[in-house]
Specification:
Radius of gyration: 19 Å
Mean pLDDT: 84
Helix content: 25-40%
Low-confidence stretches: 11-17, 20-26
Largest sheet: 4 strands, mixed
Number of helices: 8
Number of strands: 6
Strand order of the largest sheet: 1-2-3-4
């Protein structure tokens, strides 16, 4: 599960010393659910926002990906069960069975009656070590999403336009594109790092997800010196404020 704040960098500067607790700043964040298998095959992105029907969805016939509303923009037990049961039905039709590795938390409850999915709960306090998504997949997704936000700012500045707000729909589009850019090799490497298979150096992929972000931030600062105090570290660690 990945939390992203829908913020431009000027807001990042204002909030970088604040902690987001008990839903604070929830109006300007969405949660993206990223899931993939050991082969690197990825499930479609699933986005959770605060509103059930955001205004930006008006007249939109087809959303970029699955969306649900939750008052704090978080995954909860009801949304988790809905997502798992729909995935289970899909896998039954495909005559497939999988083990779904999930964090041990209240948002991820036991679900009875599943036919194609076995829920494998990680031991408490082991997510950072054993969860494959935490071995680099989420980091790669975050960096690619942030790059797209900065690129959006650059486009506005070059067009002599004011910085537009990033809507839920904008965030969804950018998250879907960023998720598409996370390659199956990156996912495979993260499963290896988590100990699910032996590491074959020949198949290993070197991935610096922040390389493009660094270049993009440099380009932004060259266009607008008011952003010269923003660092890639600020951007990369911004989601850590969500506690």
């Amino acid at each position: 599960m990945v939390c992203f704040l829908r913020l431009y960098l000027k807001t990042t500067l204002h909030l970088k010393d604040e902690k987001c607790t008990k839903g604070k700043h929830s109006k300007i964040r969405v949660t993206g659910i990223a899931a993939a298998n050991m082969n690197g095959d990825k499930l479609p992105m699933f986005i959770i926002g605060k509103s059930q029907k955001p205004r930006c969805f008006k007249n939109i016939k087809k959303l970029p990906c699955r969306y649900r509303g939750q008052k704090k923009s978080w995954m909860d037990s009801m949304l988790f069960e809905e997502w798992v049961r729909e995935l289970d039905s899909q896998l039954v039709k495909e005559n497939r069975k999988v083990a779904l590795i999930v964090d041990n938390c209240t948002a991820n409850p036991e679900i009875g009656g599943l036919k194609a999915i076995y829920l494998f709960f990680l031991p408490p306090n082991t997510t950072s070590v054993l969860q494959p998504m935490d071995q680099g997949v989420i980091r790669s997704l975050q960096a690619r999403y942030r790059t797209k936000v900065v690129q959006k700012m650059i486009e506005a500045i070059e067009g002599n336009k004011s910085l537009p707000d990033v809507s839920v729909l904008d965030a969804m589009k950018m998250l879907v594109l960023a998720w598409d850019e996370v390659t199956n090799k990156i996912v495979q490497n993260c499963f290896r790092k988590a100990g699910f298979c032996e590491i074959d150096e020949e198949d290993a992929v070197s991935d610096d997800p922040f390389a493009e972000l660094k270049d993009t931030v440099t380009q932004l600062i060259n266009l607008d010196k008011t952003f010269e105090d923003v660092t890639v570290k600020d951007i990369a660690s911004f989601d850590d404020m969500l506690v």
